[in-house]
Write a structure and sequence with these properties.
This protein has a single domain, classed as F0F1 ATP synthase delta/epsilon subunit, N-terminal (ATP Synthase, domain 1, Sandwich), CATH 2.60.15.10. Helix content is 0%, strand content 75%. The protein has a 5-stranded mixed beta barrel. The model has no long low-confidence stretch (mean pLDDT 97).
């Protein structure tokens, strides 16, 4: 899967990932390879990214929107 985390100021992250955990407006949820297409709102919290080497990175956001389509995840976030 390919992930992009974009804020109004800059692109915070881009690259291939194994898994992403997001702070959804209705509760936390995860995205793995071949996830069904989805658009969801995000609340303030931590985006947990696990890359192909199993390295985990955390990004703090103040809300936003995520779109998942054809193994591409786009997070438009308020930093």
């Amino acid at each position: 899967m390919y992930l992009e985390i974009i804020t109004p100021e800059k692109k915070v992250y881009s690259g291939d990932v194994e898994a992403v955990k997001l702070p959804g407006a209705d509760g936390s949820f995860g995205i793995l390879n071949n996830h069904a297409p989805i658009i969801a709102t995000l609340k303030k919290g931590t985006v947990k990214v696990t890359d192909k080497a199993s390295k985990v990175e955390n990004f703090e956001i103040n809300g936003g929107v995520v779109e998942v389509l054809n193994n591409k995840i786009t997070v438009l976030a308020e930093a």
